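ingest -> validate -> predict -> emit
validate: passed (alphabet ok, no gaps, 486 aa)
predict: started
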Amino acid sequence: MKLSLAIVALALTVPTVAFAQDSTAVVSNGQYPNTFSSGSANVSPFTNKSKRFNDWAISFGAGVPLVQSADLTSIKSGNGKNLFGYSAYVSIDKAITHAFGLNLQYDRGETRQGWFNTKDSAPSDASAYQRVAARTQYDAISLLGDINFSNLFRRVDNHSPYRWALHGYAGIGTLAYRAYQKDDKGQRLATEIKPFQLGSMFAQAGAGVKFKVNRRIDIEGRVMYAVTGDDEFDGGGDKYSTINQREEQVSDNFFNATLGVSLKLGKHESHLMWHDPLQEIYYKLDVLANKNQDIEVCKKGDLDNDGVCDDWDRQLDTPAGARVDGAGVALDTDLDGVIDLYDKCVTVPGPVENQGCPTTAPTPVGPVTDSTRTLEGIEFDLNSDRILPSNTPILNNAVNYINSSSGSYTVVGATDTRASDAYNQKLSERRANNVKDYLIKNGVQSGKLNAVGRGEKDLKYPECDPATKCPEWKNRANRRVYFEAK
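emit:
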């Protein structure tokens, strides 16, 4: 099996890594400034072409392999002693994004297993069961996926340089080895496997912790677990059924603990794997401390003067005076689509046409006339059936209206389109029943009221399906209870 098959298999199994958002120029179209018509809609993949970072490195290191599950093990478990081998690796590393890369790695090493080293003689008092030693010399080529968990889950508002990073590795490749066995008859070659064959495929996975020494050098401690898929890797196995064979064991796997160094290549100051793509300021590494030069904070300037460099700014036309987040997008506290600078009701959602304030007119004091068939305006927080204090004046007027009329009414509960149909149906029923209970508690005859829930099937704004298509004030209007006369 050629190594190219390993590359294809890895490409199919490595999960897709999320891209970070990149700044692009925003052309004003004369619309009312809000978060739905400005720079937040301009998103492009975070690539090395759009950001000037280094993305190549060479890594090398050495360590100790320990056979964990085999007929002859090097981790003490009743069929061997604690025998340590040696290993070394070198790899060419390519960063694809700030959180994912590929490593082409070559490993070479020797494991030792059994009751004594093959260079020694068996102890004179050892039993026949214990008079077995083995060692395996191996070479391996593998393609590894590299996930930078620290960059993947890092807080985007952390503007300080960081030196530690947790990496995860997994991949497949081809393994070649020569296993030697020694007993009372002497030492001999027990098994030999050539590379790039079907039986030579293996997989390895593990984790490592990197420490950034400077912009060029990283140090990494790594622990990998290799699955050989071969029962004869340790020098025992099917061909040697009398040598401590464990019939339930079908793969001689081993741990490999290493300490290595990465040399980052390229002309730029920062490496892609060490940089937060949403960080708003270029931070120079410690190596620049010895240079007598001013630090250039914004390489491309700050076009809209919002304090966020254009390199990281997702909204390059922020209006003057608007507060922004770390990505340069104008703040919209109530998520109604009107930025706080222009929002006359910053904490209460409302439509753009009304400058971000609710359009529901104040409820008049006194009974409601028969000119309106439905009473609306009772809205709810997301995933809540609690009656808000702002709704009590509306409900108190509804009490007066229902008591003064001779008819009966249906209390109808509804939701927005978030969550499942079944969940929304139950939530709408709870909302309707809570309003019904409130009305009865405040003097309405129970025989005049009936409560039903219609879930997400009775939207005031049908275009809000899914909810992400609408600003928050429309979704809030869908989360309501209203009355229907029977």
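The longest strand covers residues 164-183.
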